[in-house]
Amino acid sequence: MNGMPLISYIFSIAAAVLVLAVVLTLLLKKRLRERHALWWLIIGVLALIAAIFPRVLENTAQMLGILLPISLVFFVGIIVLFIASVQHSAELTDLEEKARTLAEQHALLEKRLRDLEHAPFYKDEDDAGASSDDCDQ
Amino acid sequence: MPYSLDQVLIVMPAKNEEAVVGNTVAEVKNVLPEATVLVISDGSTDRTAERARTAGADVLELPINLGVGGAMRLGFRYAHLHGFPVMVQLDSDGQHNPANVPGLVNLLDAANVAIGARFAGVGEYKVRGPRMWAMRALSTTLSLATGTRLTDTTSGFKAHDSTAISLYKDDFPAEYLGDTIEALVIGHRGGLKFTQLAVEMRERAGGVPSQNAWKSTKYLGRAFAALGLALIRPGAKNSR
Ligand SMILES: Nc1nc2c(ncn2[C@@H]2O[C@H](COP(=O)(O)OP(=O)(O)OP(=O)(O)O)[C@@H](O)[C@H]2O)c(=O)[nH]1
Ligand SMILES: [Mg+2]
Q1: ipTM of the complex
Q2: Which of A124, B36, B96, B204 is disulfide-compatible with B157, CB 3.0–4.6 A?
Q3: Where in the sequence is the domain holding B121, given as residue range(s)?
Q4: From atom 2 of ligand 1, which residue's Cα is the shortest distance away?
C-alpha cells in the first residue's frame, strides 16, 4: 500500500461502496431504470477498483503518460458525467415530444367529447333517430 | 379563386387572450362567414377557451403550453383530420385583418404557402432595435435560401395548401421561433413553394403582448441560432 495512509485507503473504498449502494438500492426499489443507472454503475465500479487497487490507477496513468494518477480520476469522471448528462438531455427532448403528442391527443379528444355531449341525440336518447346525422364535426 | 371559403380552416393560436379573442373570432366570422374558425388555446390560465367558444369558434384546449409552433402542428393535424384543403394561421389578438384571407388563399394556386408580410410597403406596423435588425437579416438570409423574396419571415399570418398541411402535420417545430424561421426551412426542404402578400398589421386590440424588451433582445440571438440550426440540420426525408 505504497505510502497511502490507511485512513484515506478506507475512505476511498467507502466512498465507492456508497455510490454503488445508492445506485443499487434505487435500482432494486425501481426508482431508477437500468438504462439510466448504467453510467452511475460504471462510475461506481471504476471508483471501487481504483480504491481497492490504487496500483491499477497508478499503472494506467503511467501507461497513458499522465503524471498525476488523480488527473486520470478527474478526467474519466468528467467524461462519464458529460456523457450521462448529454444522454439525459436527449431523453428529455424525447419526453418533450411525447408530452407534446399526448397534449395534442388530449385536446382533440376533449373537443370530441364536448361535441358529443352537446349533440342533441346524446342528451335525449329517445330522439336519437331524428338528429343523429349531426355527428361529423 | 382556387378554393371556396368553406374549404378554409382558420387556426388562431391563443395564449391568455381572453380580453381580445372573442372580438377577433366575431370579426373573422363576420368577414368570412363560410370559413371554419378554430381557436387553439395553449395552456391558457384565463377564460380564452370559453370566450372563443361563446363567439362561435371551434376550440381545442391544450392542457400544457406548447408554444405557437406546438399549437400550430395541432392545427395542421386538425386540418388534415377533417379534410380541409386550406389552413390559414391568424393571430388571436386582432392584429391580422381577416379581409386579407381571400387574397392569401388566392395565391395558393401558384404556391403552397402564402405569407402575409408586414414590411412590404403597406401599413405602418413597426418594430425597433434588435428585433428589427434580426427580422431584416432573417428575411435576407431566408429569401436567398428559398429563392423567393420574403420580407417578413416571422409573420404569423400564413395560408397553407394541402401539400403544406401534410408536410407540417408531421414536422412542425415547437421551439421558440420554430413556427416561423425553421418552418420556412423545413418547407423549402420539403419542396414547398412560398409567396407573400403585403398586408397591413394593426395594433393589438388589447391584452398583453408576449414580447417585452428583454425578450426582444434575446430574440436576436435565438433567431440566428434557430436559423443556423435549421440550415445545417440534415433535411427530413420528404419525397412526397
Ligand atoms: N399557442 C400559443 N400561442 C401563443 C403563445 N404566445 C402567444 N401566442 C399567440 O400568438 C399570437 C401572436 O402573439 P403576440 O404576443 O401578439 O406576438 P406578436 O404579434 O409577434 O407581437 P406584438 O406585435 O407585440 O403583438 C397571438 O395570437 C397570441 O395569443 C403561446 O405560447 N402559444
Ligand atoms: Mg400580436
Answers
A1: 0.81
A2: B96
A3: 5-232
A4: B68
